[in-house]
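Chains adopt folds. We examine one example:
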Amino acid sequence: MIRRNGEPRRIAELPQDKAAKDLPPPATIAGVGHSHFAITTASPQAQVWFDQGLALLHCFWDFEALRAFRGAARLDPDCAMCQWGIYRAMDFAGSAADQLKPVVTKMKELAPGASEHEQRYIRSVVESFGKRQSTTRWTLESGGRRWRRAGERATGQGQAKACPTLPC
């Protein structure tokens, strides 16, 4: 959360461009667990920030996760999964569809450079985002089902091993 005049504000309450400009660079945070999801990136440091962002999402630290994913995207602007992480952190924080749409668009543009495994995660976001815009309420439960199905298709395994962003 960002504090303004001592009052906490969620990422979703900030205009998209202001939220991006005001984020300080990510900092290494110890004690948040170890998550690793190999992504297609030219930067080893981008992989480190992506993994930290993923671990922070597991800890429900949406703001810090967003900082980490944006840090990874700064190091490798062609990383589609970095955009996926940005989307997941912003979505978790309750960002509006108009704030998420540019992230989804960029993710789609970068998807051809991602592995087939990563493209399945990206397609899941793109498909669920399209359905989300066409309905009045997108629930956590329906989103969880979509992520679980995408992970099972990607690995042929059940939920516990398939999706690193789903709580087990």
